[in-house]
Amino acid sequence: MNWINNVVRPKISGLLSTAKRDVPDNLWVKCPDSGQMVFYKDLEANQFVVPGSNYHMRMGSQQRLQHTFDGGEYRVVPVPTVQQDPLKFRDGRKYTDRLKDAKAATKLDDAVLVGEGELDSLPVVAAAQDFRFMAGSLGMAAGEAIIAGMQRALDLRTPFILFAASGGARMQEGILSLMQMPRTTIAVQRLRDARLPYIVVLTDPTTGGVTASYAMLGDIHIAEPGALICFAGPRVIQQTIREQLPDGFQRAEYLLSHGMIDMVVHRHEMRETLARVCKLLMSGVQATKAKDTRKMNGKPYVNGASVDSKVIETAARESGVVEPEAVPNSQRFEPGKGDKPKRDEGGSSTSANPKDAPRGA
Amino acid sequence: MNATTALRTYLDFEKPILELENKVAELKAMQTEGKGPHIADEITKLEQKAKAALADTYAKLTPWQKTLVARHPERPHALDFIGGLIEEFTPLAGDRYFAEDEAIVGGIGKFRNRSVVVLGHEKGADTEQRIKHNFGMARPEGYRKAVRLMELAERFNLPIITFVDTPGAYPGIGAEERGQAEAIARSTECCLRLGVPIVTVIVGEGGSGGAIAIATANRILMLEHAIYSVISPEGAASIIWRDSNKKEEAATNMKITAQDLDQLGVIDAIVKEPTGGAHRDRESVIIATGNAIARMLSEFDGKSAEDIRAQRHERFLSIGR
Q1: Which residue of A has its CA nearest to B143?
Q2: Same-domain status, B265 and B300
Q3: Which residues constitute the domain of residue A42?
Q4: Which of A175, A245, A261 best tests the B interface by mutation, with the highest count of B CBs <10 A?
Q5: Which of A289, A321, A355 is the last residue of a domain?
Q6: Interface test with A, best of B176, B256, B266 (most A CBs within 10 A)
Q7: Nearest CA to CA, how far is B5 from chain A (Å)?
Q8: Of A185, A232, A250, which has the smallest distance from its Cβ to B192's Cβ?
Q9: Checking CA distances to A127, which of A21, B7, B45, B100 falls within 20 to 30 Å?
């Protein structure tokens, strides 16, 4: 899919720059699915879904957030800075140089961008992973961004929406990238403990350590049509087992039929779906919250401790209370004393005396 | 000694040691034929030389050489550690959803007089066993079994010991079909949720997500020549360098040795191996590992479930900060 990036990348980065666009408006983009040629402008206007074939092209994180929040407006959630290049990694080129390039090309700090704003008037925090930034790989910065985003949702008590897109762990950060798997999982658990919805949108492609951690731990998993979602990529599997992979293997629809995701949703319906799902889940959360503020059904929540709590009187109340009855010694059941009726040996005093049966029963 | 010398697998960089040891063996054979007393001195000298060469080689192993040692076929595997350290070991099987995956072995038993749950990747000691255990590469069922056993541990308040030794999770059609990624994610999550202490020992290869799924522990120990990495040196070489011959460079750059990871604050302690690696004296390394585990576990005696959980969270969140 490299050639797609090659075609799209200059366009998107051009679009992002605040300066005058250096992209000609009449540029054509070829649909990787149908091969049809589309105007870049048309594609952009259609949220990067090819109009004829419905092919969902990859999207930058800024555009993704713009298309998610009401009026395209959001505030960027700050992310703590991390140590750059902790391993002093070089593979012919320095990792720091690669980072610099990626930052310049995308105008992003790293692969994850977090924003807060409103989705159909519901406050939410959303994060988008950008595949253009070193294949959306999960390193320390991206890990901190996920953690900071989830923490922000906790602070604001809002749902957290994640648009996942990643080639996996950032290998240039070695074991420290692997450590982002448990680290981000801790943040997911905190959201869960706070009963805040965590919605994952799996976009093309979501793979490796990202799928094997926070991207597969959502309350609800939504995928975009045709998205590649996997742990080990198709090429790795093919090299290992050396046989033909099934049709549509590891695509969104395949995951849906294998029970790994809840739904496949067209990008044009994503906002509406996310809003509906978040609101449905949040209404439950808000009801729980109301309890905390000592209100229930609009009335003070008393938890059984109030002196003036109203008790609904029922007929059962009169008859349901069994008063202790004084039983004269002569009537008490005593085993071994033969001067009492013997028809109920070993029975309890209640059953021996029919008039003691619960009244009103 | 002679018998084991003949049977032992020697790694490429151990060839000079092999030659010396062979020479010693030859001379000893001559001595038994009665070829004069002056050979005895020669034998002692050569033996010392071989010993020195071994110590010397193992004192400065490169990361790639450590990778080879970590994968050495005679290195003690999870079942060897379990056999040496766990009494009344009772293996438990199955994920209760689909299958039994023998790439991850586990069960209950007694470790130094306390009941524990044990888990580990098992690579297998011979061809038949390796196939049976799928070379220590687990499928989703393995991780789901791990979750099942960890939840059992939580229910009965038993500490957990895990032995990590895997090239990584198995990449196959069935594994993907049944949710390999989800299974790993849930297993990591389960580790983080528990209120009982978890002690992990990376005994050989700690291969990426396949390892972290049962290595998200309160204390992480690593054998001296074990490796732990986000991707194998070969994988990194072909993906980052686009040249599979760069595996030695990749091994060095990725910082995968116990010593590197200790510096990065990813592990808590290194268990020293005998001169010439764990495979030259399995018994002593197993005992040393047991001692280290006992020390780590005792640190959690009397701690509340909340404290144990909070320590584990803090431990991981502080990495890299």
Answers
A1: A212
A2: yes
A3: 26-56
A4: A175
A5: A289
A6: B176
A7: 34
A8: A185
A9: A21
Neighbours of A313 (CB within 10 A): 8
What's the one-letter identity of residue B129?
Answer: Q
Shared domain check, B294 and B197? yes
CA-closest candidate to residue B152, choices B92, B229, B230: B92
Whether the CB of B198 is below 8 Å from some CB of chain A: the reply is no
Domain for residue A317, yes or no?
Answer: no
Query: CA nearest B240 in A: which residue?
Result: A91
> Of A236, A268, A289, which residue constitutes the final position of a domain?
A289
Per-residue tens of pLDDT for chain B, all 321 residues: 444 444 688 999 998 899 998 888 888 888 777 766 678 888 888 889 989 999 999 999 999 999 999 999 999 999 999 999 999 999 999 999 999 999 999 999 999 999 999 999 999 999 999 999 999 999 999 999 999 999 999 999 999 999 999 999 999 999 999 999 999 999 999 999 999 999 999 999 999 999 999 999 999 999 999 999 999 999 999 888 888 899 999 999 999 999 999 999 999 999 999 999 999 999 999 999 999 999 999 999 999 999 999 999 999 999 988
| CATH assignment of the domain containing B203 | 3.90.226.10
Q: Do B252 and B142 lie in a common domain? A: yes
User: A36 with A161, same domain?
Assistant: no
Does any CB of chain A come closer than 8 Å to the CB of residue B258?
A: no
Boundaries of domain holding B193 = 65-316
- Residues A34 and A149 grouped into a single domain: no
State the pTM of this model.
Answer: 0.82
Please determine, for the modelled complex, whether the ipTM score is greater than 0.85. yes
A224 and A141 fall within a common domain: yes
B190 interfaces chain A, CB cutoff of 8 Å: no
Q: Are B193 and A172 within 8 A, CB to CB?
A: no
Q: Chain A contacts of B209, Cβ < 8 Å?
A: 178, 181, 208-209, 212-213, 231
A81 and A46 within one domain: no
**Residues A262 and A253: beta-carbon distance below 8 Å:** no
- Among the partner residues B178, B313, B320, nearest to A176 by beta-carbon distance: B320
Residues of chain A with C-beta less than 8 angstroms from the C-beta of B228: 175
Cβ neighbours of residue A222 under 8 Å, at least 6 residues apart? Answer: A199, A200, A201, A202, A261, A262, A263, A264, A265, A270, A273, A274, A277
- Token pair 């005679």: residue: B74
**Domain check: are A43 and A75 in the same one?**
no
Residue A297, domain member (yes or no)? no
Is the CB of A175 less than 8 angstroms away from the CB of B185? no
Measured CA to CA, the distance from residue B62 to residue B257 in angstroms comes to 9
Contact B145, B94 (CB under 8 A): yes
